[in-house]
Design brief:
2 domains; 313 residues; mainly alpha; two-stranded antiparallel ribbon
Amino acid sequence: MGKIEADLDTSGNTSWNKNAASHRFWPVWKGRVLIGRISGAIMRALLVALLIATPALMLPGLAVDSTQITVLIALLAAFLTFIEYNSNFPSIVEFRDAPPFNRIRFVSLFLTVFLLSAIVKGQSNPTLMTGGLTSMGTIIGNAIDFPYSPVRLLVLMLPETADNDAVRSVRTLAGLSYFISVFTMGVFLVLVRILGWPTRQGAFNVWVNLPLFDPTAGPDVLPRLQRDARVNIVIGFLLPFLIPAVVNATSDLIDPVILNTPQSLIWTISAWAFLPASMIMRGIAMAKVADMIQDKRRRAYAEAQSEDGLQTA
């Protein structure tokens, strides 16, 4: 009949054979983990595909070739996302097991693309929602369109032949997208400084969450983490200024036609606002990891000193 997993002893209490019980339920637990990982990877892949296809789904009158290219890119991105999140070991996605870092970035990018697509759609098919978004973007764009501001530099990236409607449209989209990026950085900063990310989720695994960071490449990981954090923050701060400057400097060689079509306009401005914010968030996260390592070393050193003092006494 096999081993008895539960016996009733003389005192009336139930004693369990833990080895048999854990062996019996282990396949069920493993199956649940596998199903959860696959379903999560599928959901993330669908969301990424939806993000890429959002402008094509919302904008009217797109060419067939453009739609086919968008579908192909969406399927490729969904496949890569599924492979990444269905794997037990990370490859390129950082902070995969430290939510909500990537969720905040995805929501920020999706919100930017969706709102910009709605504003561009409202230029040909106006509605109450698109009118409100356009008014809000216009107010924000005019407020931060001052000399040497990122929005002013992006507007100056347009060719001299651009009409006033194109200039106003770019200013509106740039103002709204830049506001979303700044708000996203503020939310993440509150999450790190006040809510205690990432330690509130449990133990933090540097190898899993920083797969592109090699801890064995140098003598000490702490100075390298601090250096990478500073570099990411500085580059993220300078990118909104550098991108328009580089485009203007190379305008004789490269004609900035990327803002002529609706989809390219949306993706260009979204990337212009999202990439700097993403790099600054990465720098803040790496600085937090460096602080955690430094605090752990300080505690370990203090405990070692206290133990040495007790042994000496």
